[in-house]
Amino acid sequence: MAVTRGAFVTVGQIAFYEQVKQVLLTTSYFKDNIITHFTSSFVAGAGATLLTMPLDVMKTRMMNAPPGTYSSLFDCFKDIIKFGPSGLFKGFIPAFIRLGKISYLIIE
What we know:
The protein is an all-alpha fold. The protein has one domain (2-107). It contains four helices and no strands. It has helices at residues 2-26, 34-64, 73-81, 92-107. The two termini are 27 Å apart.
């Protein structure tokens, strides 16, 4: 789970960053400067958090559960989703704050 989550974070940050930067540079409001890079990075952090949050929640649940609680990843998913889709995004704000602020440092 940790490796899969790490791959999704990396792909999400880099892909979102490059795409957002290209879109921002096509407007007349942004030039290739620190504001554009920071904005792109901030959006990349949000995108990576949205992409990886369900995996992160499932990873944490599976790691903290007593042995035998979940027979598979799908079993863990069913347990979380029975309370609604918002269960997959528990802890979104702290995760976004962590990824949003360091995305700029990693990408630059």
